[in-house]
# Entry
Amino acid sequence: MHLLTTILLLLLLRPAEPFRKRGPRSGAAERGTGGRVRGRGRAGLMRRQTQECKEYVEAGEKYLDCQDRQLTTVMQDWPKDIHHLLLARNKIQVLRDNMFSQFTQLKSLDLQQNDISMVEAGAFTGLSKLTTLLLQHNGLKTASEEVLLPLPRLTYLRVYDNPWSCHCSLESLVTMLQVPSHRNLGNYAKCAEPLSLKGQKLKKLNVELLCAGDNQVIGRPEDRDRGPRPPTIKLKPEATSMCHTYMFPKPLLNCSSKDLNNIPSDLPSDIVKMDLSRNNIKHLRPKHFCCPKTSSCSTLAATACRV
# Structure
């Protein structure tokens, strides 16, 4: 009993100062360090989510889906043996020299719906097996044939819905697009300027007009402003400007949620699937989806027209 009483007294009389000093410091240090670690963890997780892509195999070919990742360039740690690289809807502005040179097995490259305004001459160096290049819905104004020289197997090129500046610097590219054997290169792309060439398709443009003088306008400016203006003609929406084309894994024309009142005109003949959901279309005219007899009909057209 005496021994137990002595032990209790010693415990009560033991100094608490070290615990009071060490306790708060230790807790604060743990909270501070833990907070910083957790903060870095969140930032790292966000970076990984931003850069992380989906890799899968379909029909024996490897796909790397990096769409909607807020990317401004390609990553060096991506697998180099992929066959199809999907980079649509990112924030890429410039295609630099040798940007894709590590992907030597690449067959298709989807860069649509970015902010691309410049393509350096060697951007596609090393892509000798590439057959499909999608650059529509970007900010390209000019480019030369030199950009496409590293792509000897290129058979499908989409560059529409870019603000093409049809001046002399575009001559070599337009000339290349108009070669008869290049029937699937540059279809639907149009001039945005100068005013005298606005709306003309690059595939059908008279190349001589590109260097003939960009500001030639008939009549004086003051004469053009006189008299009544002709009525504005409301044209049907065009599929090339209103909708988005996807080639992989299957050709798709996505016109969903475009506030359309009519079926878009100028439907590409090689599309096999079309999405017109969530629009304001109320009237389907007879044979609206029929293709010309000279071209192949899409699955949708064949179903609607029973041709």
In short: The longest strand covers residues 54-58. Residues 18-50, 214-235, 292-307 have pLDDT under 50 and may be disordered. The CA atoms of residues 195 and 215 lie 8 Å apart. The first helix runs from residue 2 to 13.
